[in-house]
C-alpha cells in the first residue's frame, strides 16, 4: 500500500527520529512511504491559541498537498484531532463549498499512526523488539479527541522483550496544552509535577506516547530533575527490531 | 417594569434570530421502562435506601399499625404527628399521636416524629416521592420533626425515574418532594454526612401484599 | 447597563491569582482531596447508569431546543406561574435585580432574610446590596455559611467551601457561633449549623432562593438540595423571592425526568440528592403566601446571540467540569476571580461581561477535554474556549505574541520559508545551549525553561533526512 506521511511541523523540526521510525516501520511492513515536501503545519497551534484566521491558509495548504493521497499517516494525535474536529467547521465557515467538500472527502483517508496500524492494516504485532521497562502516557487528544482506546497498548503488548507497566491516573492531562505551557507556565508546571510523580512511580525507564508534544514537555521536566527517565515516541518503539538500525 | 420585560424579550428574540442549525427531534433514547421483577425492584429500593442510612421495616398490610407502634416505642418517640387522610387502619396505638388538625396544641417544631404515606417510590435512585396529598401532609410537616416515618406500599415502587414521572402526571402542579434518605450534606470534604436541617432519621415501612 | 459577575471585573488575571494559590499547601491539599472524592463517586454512579449517554443527548437537546424558543417558553412560564399565584419580575442586569429584591424585602418590612444557596445571587452581588439596605442575609447552606461566616469567597459552584477542611470549618464556626469547645467531626459541625439556624428558619419571614429549573408548561419551580435548608426556606417563610437566569427554563414537567437523573450524579456523585422540591406558585395552606420570581438577563442575551458559544447557557451548574479539570484541581476556584470557577467559569464569566473583562480566563485551560467528557448537557467547553480566544485575538492590538504568531503563520505558508526557518533556528539557538540542552530562554519562552529543559533542534530535520535518502537512493 502507498502511505503518504504527514510528519507535522514540530516532528519535522524537533523529532526527525520519529519520522524516520515511521518510515522504517511502514517499509518493514511492506508498504511504500511517500513524503510530499510541500507540507508544513496543520495550523493547530494558531487555531487553538485564537489565531483562527492564520490557521485557514494552513488548512488550504494541507488539503492541496494531500488531495491525491490514498492513505495519510500522521504520528501525532493532536494534529489528527485538529484535522478531524476543526477542518470541517473551518471549511464551512470559510463559505467555500468546494473546500468543504474536499475536506469531507479527505477525512476518511487520514489516520493517526496507531489507527493506521490496527484499523487499516489490521495489525497488532508489528515485529518489534524493545527490551525496556516502558510506561504509556495517553495524551488527551489520543484519549478523548480520537478515542484511540487501547490501540496503542495492543501494539505495545505485542512488542517482544518489553516490560509494559501501567501509569496511574492515565486520563490526567500532563499540563502541556500547547501555548498553555507558556501562558500559564506555573499551573502547567504543577500539572507536570503530578504527571512526573506517576511516571516515576512506575519504575519505567521509558515513557512513551503517540504525541511528541506531551513527551517534549514531560521529558523536559524529567531531564531537569535528572530522573534518568527518557521519553520516546511510540513509533520508535514499534520500529525497533533489535537490528540497531 | 413592563418596559424591562419588553426590552428583555426583544433582546432574546434578536439573539435567537441569529443562525441556528436545523431543528432536530429531541432524542429520548434513555430507558423509560425498567426491566426488574417486582421482587428485585423492591429489593433495589430497600438497598439504596439503606445506603442513604434509612432504616427499613417490613410489614404486611395487616400489621402496619403494630410495626409503627413498635418502631416508635423502640425509638422512644414521645410525639408523632399524623397528616389528614392517613389511612385509619394503619394508625399506631400510641399515646403521643397528634392529628395534623390539632397542631395548635403543640408547635410542629417541638414534635419528634411524623408519619406519612407517599405517592410513588423509585427503586433506581432510592427515592420516595410525596405530592403532599391525603396522608402525606403539608411540606413542612415532613420537614421539622426529626424522624420521618414513611409507609410505602409494594405496588407503589417503580424502577426508573421516568416511570415515576409517569405516575406523577396527574399531579404536575401539586407541591412535590423527592426524598432520598435523611437530610445530609457533602459540603465538608465531599463526604455525605447524615442529618443537617431536615429530619435526621428516615424510617421506611414497606408494606407487602 | 451594568453587568456584574460578582467582583470579577476587578479581579487579577488568572495567571497572577494562580501563582499565589499554588503556594497554599493546605488549600491545594483540600481541593485535591475533595475533587478526588467527588470524581470517584461520580465515576461509580455514572458507570452504573447504562443509558448515561442517551440521557446526556436528551439533556443537551432539551436545552438547545429551549434556547431556540426562549421567548415563547419564558412567556408560557410567566403565564402559568402568574396563574398559580406568583409574581414575575424581569431584570436586565444585576442592579435592577437587586433593586427589585431589596424593594420586595423592604415592602414586607424585613430586616433579615434566609437564603438558599444560589450562585445567581452571588453573581449579582445580592448580599452586599441587601446589607447596604440594612437587611441581613443569612446563608443557610452549610458551605455558604462557612464562606459567609469566614468572610471568604466561594471557590466552587456546588460546594463553595470545598477549599476548607473540617479543622478550618471548626475554627470558623467556633469563632462565629461562640462555641469554643466545638469538635471537628463533620457530625459536630453539622449539628452546630442545625442549632444555629433552627431559630432563624422558624422566625425569619422572608426567604430568598435561586432555582434549578423553571417549568414552562406548569409554571413550576424545581430546587435540588441536600440539607433541608432549602425546604426550610421554601416552605416556612411567608414570602419567597427567587432569582433565576432566563436560561433556567425547561419546556415540560416531564423534562425533569432527564435533568433529575443528570444533575445529582454529576454534581455530588449520588444517585439522587436527599431533597428535590417542585412546586407551582402559591399553594393554599402550604408554604409562602407570596412568591416572587426575578428573571435575570445580566449578559445572557449576549451569550445567546453568539451561535458559536450559546451552548454555554445549557449549563445546569453541576460542577462536574470543575472537579475533573486538571487546572482547577491545582488552583481551586479563587484563581478564576469569579464566582463561576473552573471550565464553565472560564467560558461564562468573560461572555457575560461581553468580553470586556476576565480575558485571561479562556487561556486557563490546557484544552484536555475532560470537561466536555463529563458535562451532563454536553457543552463542548474546549471548543468554546478556542472560539473565545479567537475573539480576544481579533480585538486585541498588535503585541509580541500576535506579531510572532503571524510571522510563524507566514513561515508555515511556504515550505521553502519553513525549511529556511528550520536552518535559521538551528543557528539561532546555539547561544542558549549548554551541556547539550537549552535551560534558559528569554521572554515568554522563559516560562518553559523555568521548570523544563528543552532539547535543541537536531542538526538534521526530517525533510533533510528524507531528501538525502531520496538522493542516495537515486
Ligand atoms: S458546564 Fe456542564 S459540567 Fe460544567 S457545571 Fe455546567 S453542566 Fe456541569
From TrEMBL, chain A:
Example of a GO cellular component annotation carried by this entry: cytosol
GO molecular function: oxidoreductase activity
Record InterPro entries: Cys_rich_dom (IPR004017)
Domain Cysteine-rich: 3-84, 134-218
Pfam families: CCG
Name of the molecule in the record: L-lactate dehydrogenase complex protein LldE
From TrEMBL, chain B:
Gene3D superfamilies: NagB/RpiA/CoA transferase-like
Superkingdom per UniProt: Bacteria
Domain LUD: 105-207
Pfam families for this protein: LUD_dom
InterPro entries from the UniProt entry: FTHF_cligase-like_sf, LUD_dom, NagB/RpiA_transferase-like
Annotated protein name in UniProt: L-lactate dehydrogenase complex protein LldG
Provenance organism: Acidipila rosea
TrEMBL record, chain C:
Keyword Repeat: yes
Name of the protein: L-lactate dehydrogenase complex protein LldF
UniProt-listed SUPFAM superfamilies: alpha-helical ferredoxin, NagB/RpiA/CoA transferase-like
A GO term, aspect molecular function: 4 iron, 4 sulfur cluster binding
Keyword Transmembrane helix carried by entry: no
Domain of life, per lineage: Bacteria
GO BP annotations, alphabetical order: lactate metabolic process
Keywords: 4Fe-4S, Electron transport, Iron, Iron-sulfur, Metal-binding, Repeat, Transport
Alphabetical list of NCBIfam families matching this protein: LutB/LldF family L-lactate oxidation iron-sulfur protein
Organism: Acidipila rosea
InterPro entries with a match to the protein in the record: 4Fe4S_Fe-S-bd, 4Fe4S_Fe_S_CS, FTHF_cligase-like_sf, Helical_ferredxn, LUD_dom, LutB/LldF, LutB_C, NagB/RpiA_transferase-like
Residue ranges of every copy of the 4Fe-4S ferredoxin-type domain listed in the record: 305-327
